Amino acid sequence: MSERTRVVWDPSFTRYDFGRWHPMSPVRLELTARLCSDLGLFALDDVDVVSAAPASDDLLRTVHGEEYVAAVKTASADPHRADEQYGLGTDDDPAFRGMHEAAARIVGGTVDTALAIWRGEARHGVNFCGGMHHAKRDTAAGFCVYNDAAVAIQALLDQGCERVAYIDLDVHHGDGTEAAFWDDPRVLTLSVHESGRTLFPGTGYPDELGGPGAEGSAVNLALPAGIGDAGWLRAVAAVAPPLVRAFAPQVLITQHGCDTHALDPLGNLTVSVDAQAVAAALVHDLAHEVSEGRWLALGGGGYEVVDVVPRTWAQLVAIAVRQPLERGRAVPESWRRHVEELTGRPAPRTMSDGVSAGYEPWSGGYDPADPVDRAVLATRRAAFPLHGLDPEFD
């Protein structure tokens, strides 16, 4: 197996653009790529920065309905013909010219990278333009038109992969990816998110465990609003590693929406870029433990486009290319100047939020009075026995 890392990027991915006032600004992608480049990550000898062609209609239809793909193409050609019954032309997913091609290109990048990993042409892959986890078979939702993660998972299964694990760390429940494989025991979907009681899409509770014959293939950890690094990392570490080890996937796919950050305008958690880097390192190490390092990392949500998204996803790329950034690493002055010229805003000076991002592991015991521990225990009690694990101690 090659030790190369594939990163999906070229400026054409910024064409996924819902408009000037939409929270998902494509500038977050340009600034992420520019920061990776200025940090020297794209120039490393064992890194391939690649573009992608839009996924074919046939490939999209492995997950999405034929009528839905046709509706996206119609709205893409003429936004005035967007059909809201498919989630198109809404405030969340306004139609724009070229929408089909832009969304399908994201799918193409994720699928190409997943299959390169499966074929042994790369060990790791990153598509920070991807992670569109809310799109369902017949509807756009939550800023997502096509579900690149789901199409990539299905492509791996179609190529003979027997088990794929998907970990979703976005602040929002990964409902679309979960729904795509609700009845498929070959796919483990694990979503760690803010509770649906306080945040869109209002789903993702511990008792949502998968369909008949696939019980335990869906796992959901719904966290209380307001928690920070210690609680979030404790929750991730208490649930993801034991379940993934028990499932023993051949490929691990992770979604790294950074809308868990304290500055994000759409979520209610208070996580730092430092904690997000710790979580990325955790799943990277887990991939090497359980799937021979076959790891595909995706972007996702993240709407603080200067201070948070570029630093979080550059840290993710650095981990994937085996060059994790030292704590407190200075942001390149060239990037800071670019940010200030482009946005008129001051740029952060370091890659850290200046916090320790530590946590107490579950093995030290739990406190039933603590809201984070209650949430973790609810998920462990619901899901762990279905994987042969002890919810109290494993």
From TrEMBL:
Coiled coil: none annotated. The keyword Hydrolase does not apply. Residues 22-318 form the Histone deacetylase domain. Pathway: Ketone degradation; acetoin degradation. Keywords: Acetoin catabolism. The keyword Oxidoreductase does not apply. It holds the Pfam family Hist_deacetyl. Belongs to the histone deacetylase family. This is Acetoin utilization protein AcuC. It comes from Kineococcus gynurae. The lineage of its organism: Bacteria, Bacillati, Actinomycetota, Actinomycetes, Kineosporiales.
